[in-house]
Amino acid sequence: MPTYRVFRMRDHVRQHFRNAPHTSGESAVKLRDYIEAGTVEATNVYEAWEQLRATESPLDVGDLLETELGALKICKYVGFEDAKWVIPEVKPAEQAPSEQPAEASTL
């Protein structure tokens, strides 16, 4: 049976997510907007949703489920849709101008 990692959306982000218009297709999500909240074993995301619904902290709109293989699903009003982690670009470090050794002046 697959194991899903549960990620809870942070409250300050959830308010924006709830008020945003629904978009279809793959959602891009940032890890900094989520808190990992354990795992759940289920045959699919809807069974995981059903299991968590009976707990003190059910899945809410905006929460994520990630499979062991890295597939990510986001809980929306219409069900679960695909999502992907946004990986921040690594900016190359600025190179300091190369300092040339000062030539010794002869007097």
Q: Any chance you could write out the topology, listing elements then pairs?
A:
Blueprint: E1 3-9, H1 11-19, E2 27-29, E3 34-41, H2 45-53, E4 64-66, E5 72-76, E6 79-85
Parallel strand pairs: 2-6
Antiparallel strand pairs: 1-3, 1-4, 4-5, 5-6
Structure overview:
The protein has helices at 11-19, 45-53, and strands spanning 3-9, 27-29, 34-41, 64-66, 72-76, 79-85. With 107 residues, the chain is α+β, with helices and mostly antiparallel strands. The model has no long low-confidence stretch (mean pLDDT 86). The termini are far apart. The chain is 17% helix and 31% strand. The radius of gyration is 23 Å and the shape is globular. Strands 2-6-5-4-1-3 form a 6-stranded mixed sheet. The protein has one domain (3-85).
Strand content: 25-35%
Number of domains: 1
Give me the number of helical elements.
2
Distance between the termini: 83 Å
Main beta sheet strand tally, sense and closure: 6 strands, mixed
How do the helices and strands follow one another from N- to C-terminus?
EHEEHEEE
Q: What general outline do the C-alpha atoms trace?
A: globular
- Which stretches are low in confidence, meaning pLDDT under 50 for 5 or more residues running? none
Q: Please tell me the overall pLDDT.
A: 86
User: What structural category arises from helix and sheet content?
Assistant: alpha+beta
